[in-house]
Design a protein that fits this description.
About 30% of the residues lie in helices and about 20% in strands. The chain is built from six helices and seven strands; from the N terminus they run E-E-H-H-E-H-E-H-E-E-H-H-E. The protein has helices at about 40-50, 55-60, 80-85, 95-100, 140-145, 150-170, and strands spanning about 10-15, 30, 70-75, 90-95, 105-115, 125-130, 175. A seven-stranded antiparallel β-sheet has the order 1-5-6-3-2-4-7. Helix 1 packs across helix 6 (about 150-170). The chain is globular, with a radius of gyration of 16 Å.
């Protein structure tokens, strides 16, 4: 069976840490979609955080929370156009991995399996940047929406956005395919 093309409509079902040899070359260019959209980055991390439990267990952090930004390495014939195949992505940003590492972020090699049970075709170049300490918990206003006001939820999203904004500031201006 052919590997899945990516995020929609085949939403992620699981994420695992990939044993990678050699490790990501720090001079490699990374790509991210959804240019300069901190709200989308926070929402994605919030919605998919539970899928990262196998990654955290592999890292010796069971029960922790993963706050990540998914990215792709432009290497081994993987170009922006090739990564975009089968998606609606038109705009992207890039950064050299070393810039991310230099300010203290960790980059995890991860494999994603879709809801159909097939691995994403982009797994060989898929990575996640850990943007917040694993001890950062989901704000109560976002974990229990029944008892939270819109203002409380907005403040909670803003508190999470503060962890994503510094890493998002490192990326290039948006580029078009």
């Amino acid at each position: 069976m052919e590997a899945s093309n990516g995020p929609a409509p085949n939403h992620p079902q699981s994420v695992t840490l990939r044993a990678e040899t050699p490790a990501l070359d720090p001079s490699c260019t990374l790509l991210r979609w959804w240019c300069q959209d901190v709200n989308r980055a926070v929402l994605h991390a919030l919605n998919y955080r539970k899928l990262y439990q196998p990654v955290l267990v592999s890292l010796g952090l069971p029960g922790a929370t993963a706050w990540v930004l998914s990215v792709f390495a432009l290497r081994d014939g993987w170009t922006p156009d090739r990564l975009a195949e089968g998606t609606n992505q038109q705009r992207y940003q890039t950064v050299i991995a070393q810039r991310i590492l230099d300010v203290g972020y960790t980059i995890w090699p991860t494999d994603v399996t879709g809801a159909d049970g097939d691995p994403y075709r982009t797994n060989p170049v898929h990575y996640d940047i850990c943007v917040a300490d694993h001890t950062l918990e989901v704000p109560t206003a976002l974990s229990n929406r029944d008892g939270s006001t819109e203002n409380a939820r907005k403040a909670a999203r803003a508190s999470l956005a503060a962890h994503f904004e510094p890493v998002l500031a490192l990326w290039s201006n948006p580029l078009e395919l």
